[in-house]
Amino acid sequence: MAKKISANSDSVATDQLPPTPEGYAEPYEFRYPMIALLIGSGLLGLLSSVAVVALLSLLHGPELFTFYEVTVEGSATTWTMDLTAIAVPFLVALVVTTVVHELIHGVVFRLYGHTAVYGAVPAMGAFYAAVFGEFQRRNDLLRVALAPLVVITAACVPLLAVPIPIIAITAGFVLIVNTAGAVGDIYAVFRFRRMPSETLLYDVNIRHSYVYEPL
C-alpha cells in the first residue's frame, strides 16, 4: 500500500532520499500489504498444487503418487509410507527455488545496469535481491519482477513429463513454491502498471521504498 510521506514517516529513511529529479513530484512510500500477500501466497500455492497434480496425473498416471504400501497379515493391516519420496524433493525444491529465484532477479537487475544485493528478513520469512541507493525505472522493474516466475515456470513445466519420478515430482514442487513465493512480485507488477511509464523508484533499504512520478 502506498503511503504519502508525512511528519510521522521514518525520518532516518527520508533523510537518505536524494533530491527529487527535475520534472518529478515529491516521492511517496511504496508498501506491501503483508497480510493480503500472505493470504494470496496461500491461495496461489493451493491453485498451483491442484494444477501440478493434475498435470502429473495426466502425464504419468495416478501411480506416480503411490508413496505407501499396504500389508495385510491375517486381521492386521500395516501401512508403510516412504516419506523421503515427498520430503527430499520438497526440501530440494525449497532451497533451489529460493536461491535461483533471487539470482534471476539479480541477473535482470544487472542487465539494466544495477548491482543487486542479497539478503533475508527473518521476521518476514523472506529473502530478497534488491538495489539500494539508486533510481530504478518502472519499466525495468516490471521485467525484474516477472523474470523468476516466467523463467522458472518455462524451465520446469517440460520437466514434469520426464519419466523419472523424483525429477518430475521435484519440478512440480519447484513450480508450486516459486508460484506461491512470487505473490509479492505479482503485486508489484500490478502496482507498477498503474504508474506512469516514466516513474522512478528508489529503495533506501529493504523496508523503505519510494516512488517518484512525473509531473
UniProtKB/TrEMBL annotation:
- Give me the segments passing through the membrane: 34-59, 79-99, 111-129, 141-160, 166-190
Q: Which UniProt keywords apply?
A: Membrane, Transmembrane, Transmembrane helix
Pfam families tied to this protein = DUF3267 (PF11667)
Q: Which domain of life is it from?
A: Archaea
- Bias (Polar residues) ranges: 1-14
Source species, please? Natronorubrum texcoconense
Question: What protein am I looking at?
Answer: Putative zincin peptidase
Q: Locate the region Disordered.
A: 1-20
Which InterPro entries would you find in this protein's record?
Answer: DUF3267 (IPR021683)
